[in-house]
Amino acid sequence: MCGKRSRCSFSRLEVILIVCLVLMIALTVVLLVLHFLTKDTDDSNNDVVEAARYLVGVGRADCTGPVAQVPLMGYANPDQVGGGLLSRLYSRAFIVADLEDSKRVVFVSADIGMVSQRLRLEVLKQLQSKYGELYRQDNVILSGTHTHSGPGGYFQYTLFWITSKGLVRPALSSMVNGIVKSIEIAHNSMRKGRLFINRGTVENSQINRSPFSYLKNPASERSRYSSNTDKEMVVLKMADEDGHELGLISWFAVHPVSMNNSNHLVNSDNVGYASYLFEQEKNKGALPGEGSFVAAFASSNLGDVSPNTRGPFCVNTGESCDNPQSICPIGGAAMCMAKGPGSDMFESTRIIGQNIFLKAKELYEKASQEVTGPLSSAHQWVNMSNVSVELNATHTVKTCKPALGHSFAAGTIDGVGAFNFTQGSVEGDPFWDQIRDQLLGEPSNETKACHKPKPILFSTGEMTWPHPWHPDIVDVQIAAIGSLAILAVPGEFTTMSGRRLREAVKSEFDSHGTPGMNIVIAGLCNVYTHYITTYEEYQVQRYEAASTIYGPHTLSAYIQLFRGLAKAIALVSSISYMPQAAGDPKPCQWLWLLLSEATQVLSSPFSSETTLRNTTWYEYNSCNRGLTPLEKFWAFCSSEWRKSVPPTFQHGPKLLLFYQRKTKICYVFAVPGRAHCHCGHVNRQELWAGISRHVLGAGFRRAQQQGSRCPAGIGPAGRAQTEILSFAFPLTLLFLQSVQAGLGGGAGAVLCFLRESWLSLWLFNELIFPLPECHSGFAPWSRAPTFQRNQCDPAAFPQR
User: Fold this and answer.
1) How large is the greatest C-alpha to C-alpha distance in the chain, in angstroms?
2) Where is the active site (predicted)?
3) What is the 3-state secondary structure (H, E, C) of 331-400?
4) Measured CA distances, 506 to 222, 303, 576 (Å)
5) CA dihedral over 547, 551, 555, 559, signed as positive or negative
6) Which of 190, 247, 431, 617 is deepest in the core (most CB within 10 A)?
7) 775 labelled binding-site residue
């Protein structure tokens, strides 16, 4: 004890002990802190390793292509030609791969109107040349955003050539190269990552543009939903194992038609603007199209969904035209147009795009439900013109050959059509039906009955000149990423059609031991087949129903097919559980289809339609071996074929082009009585002059013999036929032929001469030349589909 006056002190030993105690306490605290820090780090690392279930890669590449003097795709308006650029177009690719093996899924959303079969095949061809069998048609999904302000001209079917004025090679090449490059960037950027999903409701961004069709669905079904549009947005968030943000995919049903059909500037419309806003938000300081974060706003079941939220009004009077036929008292259907939320189409695009962006941003930030599970995919080729659908135990129905109804020509409130066509037409118009019958042929009774109550305007499934007008062979596909199933649909499903499809596929997964699947519809994938309505909506025959090309049971067929794919994925045994496929139209088979068309062109004068089927080149149509273009030429010009040429070639001259490279050209020019096979170096003027001699000489000789003033032997009052140089622009010739047939007399003969000589040769000179590096087969058409050199060889594609 220290006294009151004494000084309190510790002995040296006590001081040493106190210091030691303090040091021990401090050391203990430090050790405890280090222990817990190390434990937290280990636990965190263990969590990351466990959570990083996938390899994830994202990529973006420009796919804009030409922006001036190019037809725009979407509104089918031949006057809507590109005149500049408002925003660039991009392909956004996302790859998710398994950590343990090579299983992977690729999803691409491109700022284009839709994906054509030709575009998809060329993309897959380039991917296979780069990566072998890593990326295939079963694990690659290509989806178009459906902007109506992008370049056209990338299809191989005749219907789409009409408004795009044939094939636009620069547009197609830009799309193919952009998509492939975006996938390549995603492939090279793959890293361990995690996926999260979230969903929510988007308000004030859409209306149903065919509400009268929607009301035909059963009341009990409609009562289950609060709206006549799908307001739900699904967001897939992607991040690497360190939490760094990589990208997102948003699926939401809205038509990118805020920019109307008076627009001439190439742009990505409202969903493209949403992508721009999101990417600028995440890629601070980067220019548009640059930065590592990739945001795709993909299409879904948008068939009857419009972003023009103020609804339809008569542009001449200002009154509402929200009626079953969308017509105005003055001006009819042509005056009925929907208005967006803005004062003009540019402001409307900004408003809708911003609405979508803000909701996606909210869902993205709150996404916490992790996607886990194995990767799988299923793909099937189907002949959609002949699918048997079991409605119940006692009733089976079938799909139809493709056909478009009268209301197709009426357009929609987002983009009106032409002439006096109206929506909701369940009866044909005798005037237009007569013109159709004269120019394109009358639909068969079988097709008419199959499509009832649709009055057929174009029986495209029965129209094969100069090539098929619509696809018969269609592919359906599902890609499953753990608990997320992406349904790649080849067209535009309406609101209720999409709901039924999602419900059916989810039920199929549930019934086969895979409950809780998140089902999303990715629209406009792989091949375009227009619209898919419900059976009830089909009866009303507004634009969407008239554009449901495989008939009233199209939706039921797709539901049956997608259920089969879902069952295959759920049961893992895949292909054995799927219906039999119709066959895979690889480029080699498209090639033989084209060659088959050539046979049809030349076979009509023969006594038997199979005359040419026994020739040397036709033995290879199984794709077991490929023929080069020159081999096809020499086989076609073999003595065996020449023996089959009849003494009088009754249907006029035909030209078949087999090969052209720089100045070397190999072609067959058949005229009455003989076929000219030529292979050598010529220039354009020489070829033109030679064909002119053949056409005019043979035509006038025949006219002189028959006593007719028309070189092709068409009588002044007779029905016109497609004869001289039938590859020329089809509708122009058909129009001139019909006019000539009606004029008669001297005027008809003069017009006939112009059609048979100057017009055909001008079209040949202007539209066919210059030819691409490799023509696969023949070219009796203007700007026809062509493949790259190695794509002309069917043997280049391995058979699976």
Assistant:
1) 151
2) 306 (nucleophile)
3) CEHHHEEEECCCCCHHHHHHHHHHHHHHHHHHHHHHCCEECCCCEEEEEEEEEHHHCEEECCCCCEEECC
4) 19, 21, 20
5) negative
6) 247
7) no
Average model confidence (pLDDT) for the chain?
Answer: 78
Q: Which residue has the higher pLDDT, 583 or 234?
A: 234
Structure tokens of 721? 């036929």
Model pLDDT, residue 683: 54
Q: What does the CA dihedral 95, 99, 100, 105 come to, rounded to 10 degrees?
A: -20
Per-residue pLDDT, averaged over 223-231, amounts to: 98
Q: Confirm whether residue 694 is marked as ligand binding.
A: no
- Of 12, 307, 293, 26, give the one whose Cα is nearest residue 145: 307
Is 492 assigned a ligand-binding role in the annotation? yes
User: Number of C-alpha atoms within 13 angstroms, CB side, residue 287?
Assistant: 2
Cβ burial of 392 (10 Å; 0-12, 13-18, 19+) is exposed
Determine the Cα–Cα distance for residues 268 and 550; give it in Å rounded to an integer: 29
- Which residue, among 64, 102, 118, has the nearest Cα to 86 in the 3D structure? 64
Structure confidence at residue 577 (pLDDT) = 40
Which of helix, strand or coil describes residue 259?
A: coil
Question: What is the rounded CA–CA span in Å between residue 790 and residue 774?
Answer: 9
pLDDT digits (tens, 9 = 90+) for 707-722: 333 333 332 222 222 2
Confidence of residue 682 (pLDDT cuts 50, 70, 90): low
Tally of helices (H runs) and strands (E runs) in the chain: 21, 31
Confidence of residue 30 (pLDDT cuts 50, 70, 90): confident
Residue 510 near residue 320 (C-beta atoms within 8 A): no
Query: pTM for the whole thing?
Result: 0.71
Residue 553 marked in a binding site:
no
Confidence category of residue 755, pLDDT binned at 50, 70, 90: very low
Tell me: pLDDT of 130 over 90.
yes
Q: Beta 664-671 vs 456-458: how paired, if at all?
A: unpaired
Residues 370-387 as b/e (b if ≥16 CB within 10 A, e otherwise) read: ebeeebbbbbbbbebbeb
Helices (H), 637-744: 639-643, 684-706, 730-743
Please tell me whether residue 718 adopts helix, strand or coil conformation: coil
Copy the structure tokens of residue 212.
């009268």
The whole-number pLDDT of residue 394 equals 86
Contact 205, 307 (CB under 8 A): yes
Containing H/E element for 164?
helix 158-164
Supply the residues annotated as catalytic.
Answer: 306
Percent of the chain exceeding pLDDT 70 equals 68
pLDDT tens per residue across span 415-435: 999 889 999 999 999 999 999
CA angle (510, 218, 412) in 5-degree steps: 105
Q: Which of 736, 757, 759, 760 shows the shortest CA–CA distance to 748?
A: 736
In DSSP terms, 478 is beta-bridged to 378, 487
